[in-house]
Structure formats: C-alpha cells, structure tokens
Amino acid sequence: MSRPRISAVAELFKPVTWFPPMWAFACGVVASGLSLADRWPIALIGIVLAGPLVCATSQAVNDWFDRDVDAINEPGRPIPSGRMPGRWGINLAAAWTALSLLVALALGPWGFVAAALGLLLAWAYSAPPVRLKQNGWWGNSACALCYEGLAWITGAAVMSAGQFPGGRSIALALLYSAGAHGIMTLNDFKSVEGDRRMGIGSLPVRLGVRPAAQVACAVMIAPQFVVILCLAAWNRPLHAMSVGALLLLQLLMMDRFLDAPSERARWYSGFGVPLYVIGMLVSAFALRGLGGAGA
Question: Is there a contact between 276 and 224 (Cβ–Cβ < 8 Å)?
Fold first, then answer.
C-alpha cells in the first residue's frame, strides 16, 4: 500500500483548527493566577496536547467517518481525493489517540482524565454508533465543551498541581463553552448540501440557513453578556467594559453576516470569532486579581 505524503497528513490534521483549544488552555493557565516560572514545561505540554495531539486526532477521526460526505462537499480533501490511501486515515487517528494519552500522563491524573474525556468525545462526535454530529445540538455542544471549557479548566487545574479550579473560573469556562456552540455552527454552513443528502442534522439543515445563523449569533451573544455582568459584579469594570466593546464589534459584524450566512460564515469566522476569543483572555486576566483559579 502506498504511503501518504507528509503534506496530506498535515492537511488531515488541520493545524488551523488547533488554535481554539490551545488558546483556551492558555486562558486557563492565565486564570490560575500562578507564575509560569516553575510550571512553564507543564503549560507547554498542555498546549501541545490540546492542539497538535487531541485536536488533531479529532480532525483525523472526523475526516475518516465523514469521507462519504466530503466526497460531495469537499472532494479535494486527503481521504476522498485518494491522497490518503487505504486505511491510513483511521490508522493515524488511532495512533494519535494513543500518543495523546501517553503525553497526557505528564500532566498528572487531572490532565490524563481530561485528555481521555476529550478523546472520547472526539470519537463519539464522528464515529458510529453514537455519531453526535448527526444532531447539530448535541454534536456542536460536544465540540464546544472540548475546545473551550474542558481546555480552560484543564489549564487552570494542571497549573495548580491538580487543584480543582474555583467557581469563577469554572463559570467563565462554561460560559465561553456555551458561546462556542454558535462558533461550531458557523462551520456547518459550508456543507449544507452534503449534510442534507447524507442525513446529517446540522443546524442549517434542521432549521434552515437563516434561522440557524440567527441561533448561532444569539448563542454567541448571550454568554458574553453574562460574562460582562459577572465581571462587573466581581468589581472588574475595566475588564467588563473591554469585553463589552468586543461584543459590540461582534454585533456590528453579525448584522452583515446575517444578510448572507452561507456566503459570509467563513468571513465571520475569520474576523468576528477572534474578537470572541480575545474576550476570553481579557476575562482570564480579570481572575488573576481575584485569586485566579481558586477564586
């Protein structure tokens, strides 16, 4: 059997998708309020685990089990195009799963359990018989939890040598996870035709394109509004105003996105979502003055 080229393997693992969990893990590190002086190796391992390992695994798993859908929506991808021959796709997914678990041992019990949970959800999202992505509500929830909340909480926990993060840190992690459900929906607009033909119930398929776009925007807005209220209640007015300003910019961009959701979903992902994740970091810094993960 021929081997795939390195370029095809890299495309399968989709490095561009690694940023959200790596960023969320880093936000957890910041929110812990602890210095990197002695714990920077752990933080670095965690960031690598979140992106090039666990997230890359999820991409390989998804591409393997979505190869028939991709043959309709994106036939140039490594598996449907034949550049990833035979069972290389699923074999790489299995190998990266094992490697991820091995590296996770360096983060202690909490890091290992978090990595195992993330990998379990990655397989459950794409692989039968569970295949959470068949339902846009459940599938996007699983992705959002792994990409944002789980990564944030893990970052805070491993920096604290396994101490469970405090209530404020967990609240922010879960709020930003909830909002990320809308971000996940943005990815579904590019594959509506193939999803409909293959019976995948993404929100644009279930609700229609414009209603799904409206839901995605509402889901992104509401948690950020609650974050602003929380920061204000925690006597962090400058951080609250900063997140508010970032949200206002998103609202202005959402208005343009809603005029043509299918055509502008990628545009909003490229320009609106970065404002969302900057707000995450602002919120994480707000916790440092409150005792960080222990607050």
Answer: yes
Give the ranges where the chain is alpha helix by DSSP (H).
6-13, 19-31, 40-48, 56-65, 67-73, 78-81, 88-104, 108-126, 136-144, 151-159, 167-186, 192-198, 203-207, 209-233, 237-259, 261-271, 273-288
Q: Tokens in use for 188?
A: 């579904």
Distance separating alpha carbons of residues 236 and 227, to the nearest angstrom: 11
CATH topology for 6-294 is Farnesyl Diphosphate Synthase (1.10.600)
How does pLDDT run across 81-132, given as a tens digit for each residue?
999 999 999 999 999 999 999 999 999 998 999 999 999 999 999 999 999 9
pLDDT of residue 1: 53
Residues 183/276, Cβ–Cβ less than 8 Å: yes
Phi-psi region at 161: left, alpha or beta (left = phi > 0; alpha = psi -120 to 50)? left
Q: Is the pLDDT of residue 217 over 70?
A: yes
How far is the C-alpha of 32 from the C-alpha of 224, rounded, in Å?
A: 20
Whether the CA torsion 131, 134, 138, 141 is positive or negative: it is positive
For the question of whether the overall pTM of this predicted structure is more than 0.90, the answer is yes
Q: Is the pLDDT of residue 48 over 70?
A: yes
Res 286 pLDDT > 80: yes
Number of CB atoms found within 10 A of residue 198's CB: 17
Long-range contact pairs involving 112-116 (C-beta distance under 8 Å, separation at least 24): 114/150, 114/153, 114/154, 114/157, 115/49, 115/54, 115/154
Q: How far is CA 179 from the centre of its chain?
A: 11
For tokens 């002086």, the residue is 37
Residues 6+ apart with CB under 8 A from 244: 228
